[in-house]
Queue: 2 jobs
Job 1
Amino acid sequence: MEKYECVCGYVYDPADGDPDNGVEPGTSFTDLPGEWVCPICGASQDNFKKLD
Amino acid sequence: MYKPIEIADRIYSVGCRDWDIRDFHGYSTYEGTTYNAFLILGEKNILIDTVKEKFADEFLSNISKIIDPKKIDIVISNHTEMDHSGAIPRLMQVIGEEKPLYCSKMGAKNLKSHFNRDFNFKVVGSGDELKIGDRTFSFLETRMLHWPDSMFTYLVEDAILFSSDAFGQHYSGDKFFDDEIGDEIIPHARKYYANILLHFSPRVQALLKDVAKMNLKINMICPDHGILWRENPSKIIEAYDKWSRQEPANKVVVIFDSMWDSTTKMARSITSGIESEDVAVRLMNTRKWHRSDIMTEIIEAGAIAVGSPTLNNGIFPVIADVMTYIKGLRPQNKIAAAFGSYGWSGEAVKILNNEFSEMKLDIIDEGIKVQYVPDEDDLNKCFDLGVKIAKTLKQKLSGGKDGQ
């Protein structure tokens, strides 16, 4: 699954998910709940870019 | 002019003092600030951080008192915000454009964007080391403390932590070290934390845990603003631990504004109610207190009460300013209540409650709105709201104690 990078440099890796914020490992970026924001800087999902 | 100070063997503080600044992007700086930068002499001469662009000449002159700036071999940028990077282009022009500039990945991105040009970047991350002669510089990325690029540089042999903005204070006086100023500096450090770092408190907690695990010996902490912590660096680390835990305290901040003193009367009655329960209270009129001072009080409180008149079907503009500011800094574990006088429609209390709810504060009452001027009955209700806030807070605090 594809990784996405936030403007702050944080990378969302679906393999890891974001368990601290209720996102199970294995969750693709596009399946993240709408209210999920970057756990590092608080930016919303539209601030993320797909990594090549 | 700033007389460079040798802070350790062949290590100099060469930054500049900004005596005049009173508004630091919306943060009141009654005692100005300093832009600290550090020159480390050795087999190669290394500079950590720079100053605001307008102080570039003064900065170069400070360095010249120690060495010819052209003899600087390496620049490390711990933080790219303009008050620390503004002088980089001028510096590089003087010392040589080809000189390496060490920074984080996001640091390189930011500097390119700030100055619309490239530098000879050497990108480093956590754990990377730069060994030069008898000195070892170890890097630790501290992303979002408080910018994406932020990092610490730890000088291993001298056990000095160059901490960029973390542990800083906006203070420009005649003192340079914690042992010279004593506890007088703590309110400045608290204000800095409340206004610059509070919203990243979970990151601060994570960082403190990481640093504890690394078991670093720290002789001195050198932030990019204010005094340096050399006598007791653990004092500011402990303070950061306390502030970042955001544990509620036995204090209420009542924040209000008023058009015809009706909301003022309500605020005073609420304050009396809080005091009657022996809970500390601070009454802050938003047109008398700067938003950054209000924020500094809030981090040491367990509850806030916010009062706003209704103006043009909304909350009062000055209250909106303060609420936007507080919301962005994300205070946690606070009790909240709203109040306000109105003329005909009276939306303010509802709007404030919505804001509290979005801020995830614990709303303990639907709030009190009074049409036009509060009468005795209304003021008694306000007093009772103050009592309720104080009692709920005390209950919460004693519950917390039982749990420990």
Note: Chain B is about 35% helix and 25% strand.
Job 2
Amino acid sequence: MNPIISLKNVTKIYDDPHEMAIEGVSLDIFPGEFACLIGPSGGGKSTILKMIAGLEKETSGEVVKPDAVSMDFQNGALFPWLTVYDNVAFSMRARMVSGDLNNAINFQKNFYDEKSIDKKVKEMLEMMKLSEFSKKYPHELSGGQRQRVGIARALAVDPEVLLLDEPFSALDAKTTDELHNDIIKIWHESKKTIVMVSHLIEEAVSLSQKVFLIKNHTLDASFSVDLPYPRREQGPGFHEEVMKVRREFFK
Amino acid sequence: MTKIFPKVNHQPVHRRFHRHVVITYPISLWERFYSFVLGPVVFVAGLFILLKLFSNSTISLDDITPLPLGLIFSALLATSLRLLVAFILSIVTAIPLALLATRSRFTEKIFLPAFDILESIPILAFFPILIVFFVSIGFLNGAALFILYLSMLWNIVFTLIGGLKIIPKDIKEVAVIFGLSKVQTFFKVILPSIVPQLVTGSLLAVAQGWNIIIVAEVLHVYIPNGTAAQDLFGVGSILVNAAAKGQNDLFIFALLSMVLVIALLNFFVWQKLLRYAERFKFD
């Protein structure tokens, strides 16, 4: 099987300020995989995610990725002037109006009419348990609900790859737990490739099949986590997996 | 992150101290009561007392008869129209100028200092030259419009620059992720993001406009052997000419009418816009 995302000896140096972000990183992510990039802050994991998203261009090396990549941001990055419904519809409406296939990112499906958008938005809101909030504005929502809207918006365009940039970092433990369960459920049902950035080892081990440790601007180590889902922190083997990553993390 | 080459911070001063002004809608009941009702009342009453003190105590409300209602009304209309045209011109130019200045670090280095210099020019000092020019082409209103336009423009430009610079990076990245075109990005992401600054900048600009109008309509002062006949019809020229001729009743009536119009504008336009703009703020 060919990887859906492949970084080949990729280096990224930012121009202004002139800083090294990552150096000579090579990694493969296969279709349907749940992969996690972890590491200390400033280590370059977000840069890798942004390059997969097409937001940053590599300085050298090669980034192979599909066109249909969608992303959910750290705090949801919702538009405060749009309702939950319109925020979710935003991604599809953009496609509807432009229909411009020369844009950087082409999604498999183009949504040309409000009716199909309406159907899809309602489906997304249902899936993310947001139906009752559809007319609310982002400032009326809790952090967890905002994150759900961000994920709904990202999934609405039916991407091949879903990128999550530290989506749960600002949430409380209970909300994080609920969202973990939901994201695993979505992943199982949709069979999408998910790449997540996290700074928590436990989170990475409980969600993903592959953990890439990005440290000091390079790929320090990668781990396969073969535990069955749903994973529990008290479950068999969980602690061992966490310790395996932790040893490398703090080396 | 590791620095490959340590770099000194060469940022020009304006980069670090860009202007960022946002006026917020009064939230509490007291704030609203003050800005809608008590504020204008206190202001008008205070003005009234002041005027009485300075008019040798000969003026009372009864003296202001007959009230030149039609004259003042049409003068206010003419002045408001002048302000509106200048305002529209300045907002239409301010948006592209602000976008240009914040496009990249390079354009910022070029345009911000240029804007700073242009803004600091005391435009009223150039008014006589402007008038000579506009008299020669026979477009007297142009002189007033131009001076109003320049006095409004920079308020909006600098407020917008402040607004454009605080748009969160990830909000702009959303536009890239979902493949918005440049035009779509402007209308769906950038423009809504700066609505609060657009409202604040406009409010400040129009306030400045009311200020300048007092001078901008009175052209004859700058024309050799000029007479009041050369002035532009409006509440500004009525104020100045009435004061010069000692027509205190007309002066007071014109002044109070102008204050009333400004208070009404505040109540029916600016407060509503400020409230509307609250929704567009990032937290």
Note: Chain A touches chain B through 40 residues (CB under 8 Å).
